[in-house]
Amino acid sequence: MIVTAAELFKVAYGKFAVGAYNINNMEQTHGLFRGGIQSQSPFIIQISKGARKYADKRMLEAMIRAAEAIYPEAVFVVHLDHGDEETCYDCIDSGFYSSVMIDASHEPFEKNVEITRRVVERAHAKGVSVEAELGMLGGVEEDVKVEEGHACLTDPEQAKEFVRLTGCDSLACAIGTSHGAYKFKGKQSIRFDVLEKIQKNLPGFPLVMHGSSSVPKSEIMRINAAGGKLDPSACGVDDNEYLPAAKLGVTKINIDTDGRLVWTRVHREYLRDHPEEFDFRGPGRVFMTEYANFIASRSEKLGSANTLSEVRNSILELRKNKAA
């Protein structure tokens, strides 16, 4: 069942966060849906501009439609990740996406408000949720590249004004996390002091945390043992901080790098251990299982595991009341 982010966040707010995962191919799609069912958790499918170019947006949409039929129990959002204004409109007008992110965070405050407001008006007319961003995370994620010196935390006072002026449904905040696998040098942590101030200024309003992969040391070590050359000092957000953040209004947590690490580890180890193999379906099958297990493990950390029935029933009730 495809739902909007706004519907899902009403159920999740203050209780748990929903994992948002980027997909690019069939194996990731199967793994994500299986992991959601395995952990009885809703999830958010994120499609980036890079994925739309890589796989073709029609291919991605067809895979998601097929997965919806294969896994009818699943409850999920189809979300555009880090969209510009033109891409947001394309997704809104497609009638397929239930949520879009307009990322104008690199613009001055007034310009960000102006662009976001236009997207909100267009999206809400079609029943589509809108995520916006204020503040800038450092690091690299496909088309998003911000030098560390240009990163800036979200101002809690500006956040309140931004939401009032734009009418967005959720707000991605810069609270100490960063994009990319090599983002951190040394210990990093969510700036809970900033998060608390933002929630105080925006009580009940859904917040989003980007750059939230944990970058497990075990994955880095296994990849390098199988021939990889990843930076062993790379590390991410402590996954034990996910649920405390959810209690402070973070309803969506973006996790992409960790999934890429699982893919890399599975394929490097499989090809190392089966040098005679040339059938790509071998590592593909292993990856789908490993990725499903990874998604299920994240659901536990996010607090969303075993909420699927509650989420479905609550959203159906919300829709029923809205139609009455």
UniProtKB/TrEMBL annotation:
Binding annotation for Zn(2+) 2: 103, 133
Active site as annotated: 81
Listed InterPro entries: Aldolase_TIM (IPR013785), Class_II_FBP_aldolase (IPR050246), FBA_II (IPR000771)
SUPFAM superfamilies, sorted: Aldolase (SSF51569)
Amino-acid positions noted as binding Zn(2+) 1 in the UniProt annotation, renumbered to this chain: 82, 179, 210
Cofactor note: Binds 2 Zn(2+) ions per subunit. One is catalytic and the other provides a structural contribution.
Single GO biological process annotation from the record: carbohydrate metabolic process
UniProtKB keywords: Metal-binding, Zinc
Pfam families given in the database record: F_bP_aldolase
Gene3D superfamilies: Aldolase class I
Cofactor(s) listed in the protein's UniProt record: Zn(2+)
GO MF assignments: aldehyde-lyase activity; zinc ion binding
Binding, dihydroxyacetone phosphate: 180, 211-213, 254-257
PANTHER family assigned to the protein according to its UniProt record, in alphabetical order: D-TAGATOSE-1,6-BISPHOSPHATE ALDOLASE (PTHR30304), D-TAGATOSE-1,6-BISPHOSPHATE ALDOLASE SUBUNIT GATY-RELATED (PTHR30304:SF0)
NCBIfam families: cbbA
Name of the protein: Fructose-bisphosphate aldolase
Origin species: Methylacidiphilum fumariolicum (strain SolV)
